[in-house]
Amino acid sequence: MSAADPLQIQKAREVFFARKGLPVDQIGHSILRSWIRCADMGLDERAPPAIDAPSASEIRLLHEKHEALRRISRPELDALYSEAREISGIVILTNARGEILDAVGDPGFADKAAQVALRPGILWSEDGTGTNAIGTALAERRAVVVNGGEHYFQSHQVLTCSATPIIDPRGATIGVLDISVPASQQSGHVLGMVRMAVEQIEHRLFRNGFDGCRTLRFQTDPNLLGAAREGILVLKDGIVVAANRRGLSLVGRTWDGLDQLHVEEIFDTNAAHLASGRLKAQDGREFFAQFEGESLGPALSTAPQQSLEDIELSSIRQALEAHGGNVSAAARHLGIHRSTIYRRIHSV
What InterPro entries does this protein's entry cite (predicted)? Predict the structure, then answer.
């Protein structure tokens, strides 16, 4: 079953909205859970959602309030801007409520998107705008794609949206990054781009350090230290007080452990002897670790932090090499347009 199959989605809608049952085998479970939440809130899928258009002064105040989030996310919005235009879509940044802070991309689609309220200042949480990638990503705290008819409101079926929540070092959701395209557009690779961009944003949240704490960066591959895919744990008196998703995943923990998890429960050493270099976990796995401001030493070099553009360019070059320089084959492998490859290669 493909959740993106329009006929399958329509069948699921007919079953659900006619109250004939729950289409558990016809629609993705995250979408179905969202439909149930929206129905429980009394939303009418046939009625246009109520939109409270903010004034220019309200949008200005919203921007001022969230200037830090907008500033730290700006490199990713700029990097994804060209990609969004390439697929006739727009990149959207929201705050933790789902209020749109920025929307950039294809001008033609931006005009159409504005007609369904994809513009700054509009709230896209589930309670106001039904099932949509932004609101559902906030509700589920995970990456979500909502294709065409999977949107709760009929008027939003012209969209396909891919969104990932932005999580701060303490585990709180502070915003959402989304790419929305016409429902008729092929967009299988979009969620991967959004996830990569969010990793970069979340990684940047650790750049200024934490007062009175030690920041531990670690990975199984020393070349990933300094890159967005490194694990990060912030320690205070041997207790984990902040972390990124990658760090928690590497040690098999969740945000619930913050302020309680002691470093000795994770690594085969005590807090007093933790140092940069090789680090053994309690389960026997070996990591390469580096504390903020400390050197790994000549035997363990680290890679410089990569930008989103650097990562994309590296992936394109690897795909071209794997396919003998065949641009069409490399584009199919990466799920992007040929023109994107030409533009990336020739911009260097």
Answer: GAF, GAF-like_dom_sf, Homeodomain-like_sf, HTH_Fis
